[in-house]
TrEMBL record:
The lineage of its organism: Bacteria, Bacillati, Actinomycetota, Actinomycetes, Geodermatophilales. InterPro entries: PUA-like_sf (IPR015947). This is EVE domain-containing protein.
């Protein structure tokens, strides 16, 4: 894969093996949470600027997929265990399942699906991000339904 340019990335993908309720106890569906997420040191961190869309991808055997949507709030900075990036995420009432994305023609080739053990952060193109938003649906649907 050639080096990413700012125009390549429509949405950053932050991966976790931990479910949202365990990341931030009390984080209810439809609610926002301000978090610092660990990322791998790479050139990609310079592209993760405040205001850019991002999402939380939960991997593993239990409900893998998109669990929250939001935006980058702070550029990467050194944390105790390595670099961290600040984000504000809204937890989805129902995750967008990995299987749904694999079945979607615009999303099936996303880096997070092709290389699930790859770098954190991962990214989505404009078409892939649009597919995620399409699967989330309008407000009052999967995004905020308790």
């Amino acid at each position: 894969m050639p080096r990413l340019e700012p125009g390549d990335v429509a949405c950053w993908v932050l991966k976790s093996r931990t479910a949202p309720a365990d990341i931030d106890p009390g984080w209810a569906p439809g609610a926002d949470s301000a978090l610092d997420r660990c990322v791998r040191r790479s050139y990609r961190l310079a592209l993760m600027t405040p205001g850019r869309p991002c999402l939380l991808w939960v991997s593993g055997a239990h409900q893998p997929g998109v669990h929250a949507l939001g935006e980058v709030t702070a550029a990467a900075a050194d944390g105790a265990g390595g670099p961290v990036v600040g984000v504000r995420l809204t937890r989805l009432a129902e995750p967008v399942a990995r299987a749904e994305l694999l079945a979607h023609p615009a999303a099936r080739d996303a880096e997070v699906l092709r290389m699930p053990a790859g770098s954190n952060p991962s990214w989505l193109s404009a078409a892939q991000y649009a597919a995620v938003l399409d699967l989330v649906g309008p407000p009052g649907s999967r995004a905020t339904r308790p």
